[in-house]
Amino acid sequence: MSIAKEFHFDVLMTDVKAQTQPKIFEILAQEAAPLCEVEVGVLSDVLDQNAEDRTFPLEDGVAIFDVKSTHIKTPALAMMTFDRDIAFNTMDGKLVNIMAAVLSPQSCGPVHLQRLANVSRILRSHDLCMALREVDSADAMRALFMPTQDWMLAA
Fold first, then answer.
1. Strands across the sheet with 76-87, in order?
2. Rounded to 5 degrees, what are φ and ψ at 149?
3. Average pLDDT of the chain, as a whole number
4. Cα–Cα distances in Å, from 16 out to 36, 61, 99?
5. What share of the chain is helix, strand, coil (3-state, %, to 5)?
6. Cα–Cα 20 to 30 A to 25, which of 32, 61, 63, 107?
7. Which residues, in sequence order, are CB contacts of 63 under 8 Å at separation 6+?
């Protein structure tokens, strides 16, 4: 698989200022809805409905939000860092300061699972997570996901 061609984040946001998981999902819906070809309100509802059973913790402070829906027409990947630790509805109940979202049409099946696995693998890199917490712009975050970075080899 060509990482540069098939693995990139469509939405990159750093130091998102929000205090609750619903506010994070509202911000994500506003950014991702045009990419997913869905109305903001519809995507916001989809995110809220999937919050409880589709948010998975990884390392300390890192979560992946995994959503498949018939409302989503085009897949998108999002990476967000927060300006503070946020209480997320994750299985381990720990606070989150980095979240990746894998948003896919219901029909994506194995492709969705591959994208989810790729995101999970790279976010298991402690060095990447530390670097994500330190970036202060989307461009700096984008540079972390260049194919030449060691942690991208895991994807």
1. 11-16, 76-87, 95-105, 62-69, 55-57
2. -70, 140
3. 88
4. 21, 15, 11
5. 45, 25, 30
6. 107
7. 55, 56, 57, 88, 90, 96, 98, 99, 100
Given this model, what pLDDT does residue 105 score? 96
**Cα separation, 79 vs 65, whole angstroms:** 10
Query: What is the DSSP secondary structure assignment for residue 147, as one 8-state letter?
Result: T
Q: Which domains does the chain have, with CATH numbers?
A: 3-144 (3.40.930.10)
How far are the Cα atoms of 21, 72, 90, 101 from residue 50, in angstroms, in the given order? 12, 13, 12, 12
- In the chain, the DSSP E strands lie at 11-16, 55-57, 62-69, 76-87, 95-105
Rg (CA), the chain: 14
pLDDT category of residue 91 using cuts at 50, 70 and 90 = confident
148 pLDDT band (50/70/90 cuts)?
confident
